[in-house]
Amino acid sequence: MKKATGELELGRFLQIRRGRLSPEDVGLTGDAGKRRRVSGLRREEVAQLARVSVNYYTRLEQGQNGTASPEVLDALATALRLSPDERAHLHDLAARSGPAPRNPQPLSEKARPAVARMIAAYENGPAVLLGRRVDILAWNRLARILFSGHIDLDPTARDEDLPNLAELVFLEPGSRALYPHWMDEAHELAGYLRVMAGRYPGDPELSALIHRLNDKSPEFAEIWSGHVVWDKTHGTRSVHHPKVGRLTLSFETLRLPDAADQCIVLYRAESGSPSEAALASLLKE
C-alpha cells in the first residue's frame, strides 16, 4: 500500500529531529566515549525517552503506523526537545497523516474589505496582511514603498496582483540588499511555510509555491530540507532601503479570529529614532 504523504512527512520530521540530538543532550550517558554508528539519537533511545515500544516508534518513522495519540505525540515532542512551534507542527503532521484528496482544490484567500481599509489607514508604520501562502493580500502605502523598493511594482496593482513575500525574498536579487540579515529572513519564511504545509498538505497552490522555490532557490532548498519550523509572532527587523538607508523596526503579528491563517503584521520605529525620521521621509515620496 502506498504511504500517505502526511505519514512520510511525519516520519521524516521525526528522523531529522532525533538526528540533531546527542545522548548527552537528553541525559543518556551510557555510551559516553564510545564510537556510534549513527549521528544523533538511535530509534530505541527516542522510544525509551518517550516510553513507547521501539517497534511502534520505528513504524511511525517509516510511515506505517497511521496516527498517534496526542499523549504519544507530546511524549515524543518532549523526548526530542521540540520547541512550541515544532510541537504544534508535529501534531499538525499527525492529524493530517491520512490520504490526501484525489483532486484537491485551491484554498482561495483574499482580504476582507474592512481589514484592507484598516491596513491602508494605518499611519504609524508599514502594515501588511499575509495569507497562509505568504501572499501579500493587502498592505499600506508605506509597506509597499519599503518592501518593494527593489522591484518594479505597479503602485496601482490590484489586491489579486500583489506579490508573494517568499518569492520577493528568495527570487528577487535585490532582496539581499534590502534585508541586512537576509539568512534570518530566509529561515523565518521557510519555517513559516513548513508550518502551513503541515497544516494544509492538500493545498495545490501552496505545494506549487514550495516546488517553485525549491527549483529556483538553492538557499530555500537547503533550508527546506532541514525541516525548519518557525512561527515567529514578534521581534525586530532590519531593512536597508536604497533611498533612506538602514531602518530598525519592531513588529507584532496579529491573527484574525475569523481567518486564523491570515495575519496582520504591524511595524513601528522607536519614537524619535532615525528610523522614524526615515519612514516619514519615505511617505513624502
Question: What's a concise summary of this model?
Answer:
With about 280 residues, the protein is α+β, with helices and mostly antiparallel strands.
Would you write up a description of this structure?
The protein is α+β, with helices and mostly antiparallel strands and 285 residues long. The protein folds into two domains: 5-95, lambda repressor-like DNA-binding domains (434 Repressor (Amino-terminal Domain)), CATH 1.10.260; 113-283, Beta-Lactamase, CATH 3.30.450. 45% of the residues lie in helices and 13% in strands. Strands 2-1-5-4-3 form a five-stranded antiparallel beta sheet, with helices on both faces. A hairpin with a 2-residue loop joins strand 4 (245-256) and strand 5. The longest helix is centred in the last third of the chain and has 18 residues, at 182-199. The model has no long low-confidence stretch (mean pLDDT 86).
